[in-house]
Amino acid sequence: MNFVEKRKDLAETGAVDASQADAVGKAEAKTGFFRKRYAWIGTVASLLLLVASAVVLWKLSEEITWAKLSAALTAVTGTQLAVAFGFVAISYFFLTFYDALALKQLKLKVPYRITSLASFTSYAVSFTLGFPLLTAGTIRYWVYSSRGLSTAKIAALTVIAGFTFWLGMGVVLGLSLIVEAGQLAGLAFTSIRVNQGVGVAALFSVVGYLIWVSIKRRYITVKHWRLELPGATVSFSQMLVGIGDVCAAAAVLYVLMPSEMTLGFSTFVAIYVLAAMLGIASNVPGGAGVFEATIMLALSYLPRGEVLGSLLLFRVCYYLVPFVVALAMLGIYEVGRRLRRHRAANDP
């Protein structure tokens, strides 16, 4: 869509008046120019991060033998696995409220059972396969479109859910870096002041955003959709949900770690969040390789074979098992929907 078409579309939809449409169109044309010209930078950065992580992971794994890895996997107790799966359930439970809060913001009423199905299955599949806009978006559309939601509403829902994730990550990272600045300095090869500075910046960003959306209604433009951002009440709820999800996910890996680990949970959460953020930046499904390399580097004082075994079990518990469950749930949902259609068609 060119500038003239963009201006006409915005003005005709009534979202903005003609002068505002001109401003929006010009801004988006300028943004689009820079995005096209410098789009390669993000791709190169992701590739460099992936290559560097692969090299680090290879170096750290050189001393690991199959015997050591097998021993590490078999050393995990049934109690550890039970607790880990308990935290998996808690984390995915929090994830269902990502969609629930987004639907509340959009003033859409969808039964929680449908919301939880769409949310759980979309995240479980996208975490494993990657390409969240395609995989999670397709599943959300499959489930929500049958409830009358348009493509635009589903896209808006996805954007708002993303805000929930980053609000939670920002708070957890900020608090962890401030509270555990000293211990993290040795593990992450940084300084106490750097950790505290980054932590304060992260918290200020979250607080600043909450203040910004509380003053008046705020909007962002996605393509030609004008989306109202959640106000202070919903944003604060998003923050709490995001914190719960991140902490529960980190707890899954924490309980699977070898008994030699002496780190407190708040310190470990900071390492987990940093590894997760680097994994997201790499654009690799589940941050595979990047996530592991970061964790192993930060916990290099522990036996590498045992740490890698814990990471592999984490992948199974948090990614593989929910992925299989999600596929089964989607299959059952589709069969049930087809049966209902068949009965409706045959009813006199």
From TrEMBL:
UniProt keywords, alphabetically: Cell membrane, Membrane, Transmembrane, Transmembrane helix
Keyword Cell membrane: yes
Cell location: Cell membrane
Topology in the lipid bilayer: Multi-pass membrane protein
Transmembrane feature ranges: 38-58, 78-98, 110-134, 154-178, 198-215, 235-257, 269-291, 311-333
Predominant location category: membrane
Source domain of life: Bacteria
InterPro entries hit by this protein: L-PG_synthase/AglD
Signal peptide: none
Record's protein name: Inner membrane protein YbhN
Native organism: Methylobacterium thuringiense
Name of the coding gene: ybhN
